[in-house]
Amino acid sequence: FHHDGSPPAHEQAWENAPQRQPDRRFRPPKAQRRASSGLDDHLSQFPIRGARVPKVNSGDIAQLASYGFTTAFDAKRRDLQQVHGIGPVKASNIAAWIRRAEAKFQFQSAYTPEDQRQIQKAQNEIITKQQGLEERLKKLVGEFRQEAQGFERWKSGRDPELERLAQQLAQAEADLSHLGVSAPSLPNVAPLPVPPVSTFQRGGRPSNFAATFTTGTRAAPSPAQPHAVTCPRCGSRMVRRTARRGSRAGRPFWGCSRYPSCTGTRPI
């Protein structure tokens, strides 16, 4: 070096001379990606600290490191002049050093053992992700089928709680009808699925109950029913009831309206 810190003339000529660049013109896309990745790895092996770069001193190297510039790869992919103290001249000298490092790179088209290891690692990761995705899809399909089967069972089956409430409603409307009390109008709600009418007929329920429940209108008394049935014990009016226990469970009968004070009954 001269007294002013500048390099000898032959070094300046080398830095300013055009450097040989890796030839990528005739490489297929996959080979270009491999060459680019290999060049990046190659430049990462050239630390700025200890490099012979004209006009770049230890203070500049510390400033570069504080901005994350530690290798030739870092200096190539980012703007050096954002670092305090690095101007066009120093940035140009560092760029020349990077070009010299690039000129030493030799791309090997044949896969090295390290390349084979990286390829195998990537393939294993892909297979693992595919297997995990396949398992998740199988699980989702199984859950969907279970939900669909459960929906079909619900749609074709009976709801015990709904049947119980429907029976209580029918019994209450029949009681009010035979007592001569008008039943309050039901709210206008969307129709709900109920068991077939024939089911209630076999169980002794009013034949018009299903229409009553789904349309929201109260049931009218059957024309075949007598308008006045008296209790054999006390002579009071009798109302239609449904047996809940015993051998006649589910069948209708006439019960005294004064129940539980009077337990008189008549068969229907």
From TrEMBL:
InterPro entries: Topo_IA_Znf. GO terms for biological process: DNA topological change. It comes from the Bacteria. One of its GO terms (cellular component) is chromosome. Residues 229-268 form the DNA topoisomerase type IA zn finger domain. GO terms for molecular function: DNA binding; DNA topoisomerase activity. Keywords: Isomerase. Residues 1-44 are annotated as: Disordered. This is Topoisomerase. It comes from Borborobacter arsenicus.
